Amino acid sequence: MALTQNQKQDIVAEISDLLSTSKMTVVAAYQGTTVKALQSLRRDAKANGTKVKVVKNRLVIKALQANDTLKDVDTSALTGMLLYAFNAEDEVAPAQSLNDFAKANPTIQFIGAFTGEGTFIGADDVKALAGLPSKNQLIGEVVAQLLSPVHDITNALSGNLHALLDGVADAKA
What we know:
This protein is 54% helix and 15% strand. It is an alpha+beta fold.
């Protein structure tokens, strides 16, 4: 059933809002993917704050033109059956969600992404971003690195002389 003019305007307004708040919007082709698989993708992506939408490309282009940051972005890649993944908290999360889903469903192919700064990056760059650890993983790794000397000293004080020597050696390096 065709959308009315008011419904189209509501969709453009919603997409424009998602684009303006999203740190990165990943675009992917989904031709050949079942509806059940797309529902699974939406459910899995929602767990990390990513919102997945299937919208007509011309409505997305109108939303891009209405956005001051993204109005000059090249939209020539927006052809075919595309889905859009938005995330307002993490730049890498939408790419990771789609990449994880694409491992089990090879019908999902990256087209590119719109960054929060107003640029369009290609599919290869999106795949590279998908391989990065998430923001929370990076924070955890930094905290673990910072706490490593503290753990070494704690182990040494609890009577383990070997840990004391390791802690001293790590502190000198």
